[in-house]
Amino acid sequence: LDAHPVLQAFVASFRATLAGDLATLQRYYHLSLEGGPSAWTLNLLPRSAEMASVIREITIRGSGKQLQEVFTLESGGDSSLMTIRGDSAP
User: Mean of the per-residue pLDDT values for the chain?
Assistant: First the structure.
């Protein structure tokens, strides 16, 4: 990942959120947090111009310690939504 700083920052958004690593999140992103423990939204805006040229924003939603959604908006306008389920349903 050291050879690909944009990918490194993207992976850090997941790892640091899951680990509760605020320092790492702040190294790569401007943060804003809304809501409370039962329903929260964390918005990540890239700090570096290089990252911002690829990713415009990452929005992570969850409840308590459980991540539920990760929405990624790319700078070109494309987007993706990953839904994370805690049960074993298909």
Answer: 89
The tokens for 9 are 């920052």
Element (H, E) at 8: helix 5-19
Single pTM value for the model: 0.84
Contact 52, 40 (CB under 8 A): no
Q: Please measure the distance between the N-terminal and C-terminal CA atoms of the chain and give it in whole angstroms.
A: 32
Sheet holding 29-36, edge to edge: 29-36, 39-46, 55-63, 66-74, 79-83
Query: 50-68: buried (b, 16+ CB within 10 Å) or exposed (e) per residue?
Result: ebeebbbbbbbbbeeeebe
